[in-house]
Structure prediction request, 295 residues.
Amino acid sequence: MLTTDLFSTFQHLSTFPASIFSYTHSGQSLLGFKFVSPGEEIFHVGWFRLKWYGLLIATAVLIGVNLSMRLGKSRKIDPESIADLAICLVLGAIPAARLYYVTFEWHNYSQHPENIVKIWEGGIAIHGALIGGSIAAIIFAKFKQISFWQLADIVAPSVALGQAIGRWGNFFNSEAFGSQTDLPWKLCIPNYRAACDYVHPTFLYESLWNLLVFAILMWLFIDDNRHHRLKAGSIFLVYLIAYSIGRFAIEGLRTDSLMFGSLRMAQMISLVGIGIGSIGLLWLYIRRRSLPDVV
Prediction:
């Protein structure tokens, strides 16, 4: 049995690069990509199953913690404090992300409440994670007597990078995709006819957008380290606005949005994020006052 499992694993991995995308020609001399998920599992041996989503999330967390520790050190904050903060963020973000998702999918979970705890089967929401992580960070900052906005500025680039990495988990799970398209770049979702429905690869759109947000935030952070022109909280507020703009636009393409009546929750929360970020920057640079803090 073990030999069979290992053989299947190596056979699957040997075809992995070709199964992610293939080149297509649109007839207009434009090279495109057709993304095809190789499946959610990397391999399994007996009862042990390693899935891409879990590996990507773990990778994003490790990279994010390392980056935040380096950025914190440049702001004269003990890297050990950042490591402790990372633990608090995970403990706050994951349950909140699950609770947020379950709340807006209650029509499904109410029929099978035993599935609520099965987070390994999927079903978390980034906005829930951001809310839960923010609450955890506020509590941590109060306890450690560190400026919340200073911590938020340090962590924001890592959050954007983590989101860029984590979105690829949606690709491997064949989820969070958009409406049908005939663009040169598209995602194949197998249908009941054993053929493909071609849809917008919204996971890719958001991943690329988040990489752009990450680059902007890092540029602001490095420039501020040199010239000290930004006020505490500025980088986090820019993240809030930039991420929310991209998420609002991309969410309009998706077919699996969490809904509140006829409204897409992600778009509603994005508008709130844009509003909070804009008011915060106006408060900092027009009113020329500091943001309320927990210290």
Summary: The first helix runs from residue 2 to 14. The chain has a mean pLDDT of 88. The CA atoms of residues 68 and 152 lie 10 Å apart.
